[in-house]
Amino acid sequence: MSRATSRATSRATSRATSRATPRAMTRAMSPSTLLPSSGKVRLGLAITLFFVLLAALGPLLTAYDPQQSGPDILQPPSGQHWFGTTQTGQDVFSQFVHGARVSLGVGVVAGIVSQVISVLVGMIGGYFRGATDELLYVLTAVFLVVPGMPLLIVLTGYLPSRGMVSVALVIAITSWAGSARVLRAQTMSLRRRDFVEAARATGESRTRIIFSEVMPNALPLVASGFLFSVITAVLSEAGLSFLGLGSLTTTSWGSMLYFAQSAQAFLYGAWWWFVPPGLAIAVVGAGLALINFGIDEFANPRLRTGRSRRRPVRRSGPVAAALAAATTAPEVREPESSEPTDPGPQVRPADVAGDPVVSVRDLVVEYDTPDGRVRAVDDVSLTLHRGEVLGLAGESGSGKSTLTNAVTRLLRTPAEVTAGSITYHRRSRDGSRREDVDLLGLPDDELRVLRWSEIAIVFQSAMNALNPVTRVSAQFDDVVRVHRPTMPAADRRALAVQMLQKVGIEPDRVDAYPHELSGGMKQRVAIAIALVLEPEVIVMDEPTTALDLLVQREVLDQVMRLRDEYGFAIVFTTHDLALLLEIADSIAVMQTGRLVEYGPALELYTDARHPYTRALLRSLADLGALL
Amino acid sequence: MKYLLRKVLLYVFIAWAALTMNFLIPRLMPGDPVSLLVERLNGRIDPAAMSAIAESYGITDDPLLVQYLDYLGSLARGDLGLSIGLYPVPVADIVMGALPWTIGLVGTTTVISFVIGTALGVVLAWRRGKRTDLLLPGLTFLNAVPYFWMALILVLVFAVNLGWFPVSQAYTPGLTPGLTPEFVGSVLYHAVLPAITIIIASFAGWVLSMRNMTVTVLGEDYVTMAEAKGLPRRMIRLDYAARNAILPSVTGFALSLGAVVGGSMLTEVIFNYPGVGYTLFQAVQNQDFPLMQGLFLIISLAVIAANLIADVVYVFLDPRTRQEG
């Protein structure tokens, strides 16, 4: 039910907020894009507004008192009684609009009270930790698990008088826990962020930090929690009143249903009596939930649905969303070079012995953004030779990841290859047969066969690249099973153990889960998995960035030794030019999607021709990284 | 196993809290329930029964702690007091009579709706951005439909107008309960409409939460890596995406279970289904406080037990919880 959704989506939200790129956040922050961003949200707002107006103004539209009996008994809707009449001749429309006031009123009051409790319990627990947190956590767990409705029934059963306010308070008491737990998790993650640490360091008081630093960042969750509390409260009030436990002297949607039920309205087919209140509850609930969709999507860009390809000109959320959801969002920057003239790409012939294995020709990759099309990769040509280490350097947003994703066919919408070609030059093991494969045009089934057996990948963060819930052995096993279907299970396992040993990992770790390995070990496992089918090409996307320096060095040495042993070619992406100068045969420097310099590593070092490359080298020299 | 032990301890504590809450509610609520009771029941039953009720109700002039120990003592003996409405039938007997119906109906439908909802949520996540997204507002609507209203509509259409299913009861009156084909058939026939009500009113929540989780997981690096490995699509979706996305759904079970049980109780009322919910409704109508409390206690303990089971399942699904130390 609603509360389950609220919790699970919010959990997703709290996980994802940290991942949203600053760019996507700032874009979504501006109110002009927030309001009209999605049809769902607009529909939700319209529904909510309609019922709020109905509750406020509706009673003015009707001449009948909701409780007043009349001579017309169980009349279907007519001009005189818009929604018909009840068994005692009361006007259903009048009851409906008066009921809207009560139902929504109870919902809002209970929603506010419940959310205040959630915020206090969740934030205090999440921020202070320790014994306070333990205590509040257990308290929350009790209210989370003990079923709300029966508790509500028992509590109201004992209430001496059942006014709407006391019903609302009781509902609030039974429904705050889910939201409190979500807020606790968010607070715990927020308190470790830099800006909170900074506020602590400057000696701000805890209350101030909670309310002026943490709270604003948890606001989407508070808002979403509030809306769900309102839904829960409206439903609970209806349920209670329906059982005859609400205030039966007050007309609410729930008490309408109670009287309809006890008068057996459905046996008489008096649909006009019980359809409107129930339908209204459901529609209001759906309306609030739709607004919540918007809040979730705002906080978690991945949830947004990318409609960008169909409507490129619309200035709207989904586009920004899809952009953020794509593996890399290109950022258009002014060239940072101090030298005014751009001499164009500086390309020198490579002096590598092997023949080409991948050739990229005049490749253009574009993204649709609200501000028009952005060229993430702009007319790039590269050749990777067998056994070559090709370094791809550039700052984040230079398009290097988009380029490698194009080669591995892992581009996500809205990124699109609009020109150029990528060719894989296949060669049989003995070198007798050769064949050129058009990577971009390869059908899905053939692509699947080529993947990993010919082009494998090592991702930037092995922490996220290994499936957290299966053993290391299984992550070797699935890929071998798919690509070498005839290999017996025992051989597959032996192969996994052998590959692990190649990267210096004990055989017994083959049955470990990723979380049981250190960061460096995980990256070695990822490398071992990349090697298992002895591919021709391994794309390494900043494979060492997440590791500390010593581990980085060990992993690099290992990679280079394995390259000598197996002879695969490497595309090595990094922003660390010093590293590339050391390991790469050739280096390609990218800036804002364009290739600015490309050639043998040594020549690039001794004789850089492009001002951007020279600026990079100079900054390395200033840091003392180059001797 | 430390994780599991902590969980078990937590649930033991929650169970104790529920017991204690059950003890405290009548004593802490404003007003004096016994005199309220006497006032309300005055003239309806004879004075001798009246004092017996007050006594069996456990609210005496003893200090609170003594009352509390008495309460725990009788609970340990399985003594939940005597019903007022059906005086002098023990509450425990009434609860035991109602429990199988609810566990059968609500237990089965909860599992079915979880399975349907989760599967559909995964499918909708894979197809995000396609036309199936248009189902989302509809599902949101379903998710907000009150159970009892859904029940009313289904009764109107399928029982009253079309006459396909019985309007109420759990089996045809007059049949002798037993494992006869006639009786079992009648029970299943009567359960169809309430079961459909609960499934329709509860599956949408699972769909929406599972869809959101799967969409989030589909953006994870390990799913991209699975794709780069050239694995078949089915394997990526099941072993990598769905396998990870289901974890929060299993934990989320706790919350929704409470809501599903609450909603199902109202559904039972509509169908006069002789389960715990309907019995609670009757207890409330008759101001049968001992029965009310006994039922609340049993419902709470059942939900707590279901949560514990969900957490045990979680331990098997997520190796990270099995970490030693």
UniProtKB/TrEMBL annotation, chain B:
UniProt entry tagged with the keyword Mitochondrion: no
Transmembrane residue ranges: 9-29, 98-126, 147-167, 187-208, 245-271, 291-317
Record bears the keyword NAD: no
Domain (ABC transmembrane type-1) ranges: 99-310
Top-level taxonomic group: Bacteria
UniProt entry keywords in alphabetical sequence: Membrane, Transmembrane, Transmembrane helix, Transport
Pfam families hit by this protein: BPD_transp_1
PROSITE patterns xrefs: ABC_TM1
UniProt-annotated location(s): Cell membrane; Membrane
Bilayer topology annotation: Multi-pass membrane protein
Main localization (coarse): membrane
InterPro entries with a match to the protein in the record: MetI-like (IPR000515), MetI-like_sf (IPR035906)
Protein family (similarity comment): Belongs to the binding-protein-dependent transport system permease family.
Protein name: Peptide ABC transporter permease
Biological source species: Isoptericola cucumis
Lineage of producing organism: Bacteria, Bacillati, Actinomycetota, Actinomycetes, Micrococcales
